[in-house]
Amino acid sequence: MYTEKVLDHFSNPRNMGEVEGANAVGTVGNAKCGDIMQISLKINDDGIIEDVGFKTFGCGAAIATSSMATEMIKGKSIDEAMKLSNAAVVEALEGLPPAKIHCSVLAEEAVKAALEDYHKRREEAK
Ligand code: FES
Prior knowledge:
This protein is of the alpha+beta class. The protein contains five helices and three strands. The model has no long low-confidence stretch (mean pLDDT about 95).
């Protein structure tokens, strides 16, 4: 039912926890399943994501998608990370069962929420 990539990211999640010195945090939840995902980012002055962390209180697919999403945006620019789609995360995991696609949507939303938080903090600091 789950691909090896999904099982790998579920069993050995990458970038788990909160990034030390994070300057952006995004938290999203899915009202139906009750799962919650938080992405924290450390973005440098050049707009590059130096470090990423995730905390997911959710199902295995949510953990695997958040782990993969953090890997996909690490070292990327804000603009590139903004373009991360849940479909790209699913593709990188070589597929998810249809009933679990919403878990990958949570990962996309969490990344976007963190990037929005970054912009908001920058605006406030002006
Ligand atoms: Fe809701 Fe996976 S079941 S995030």
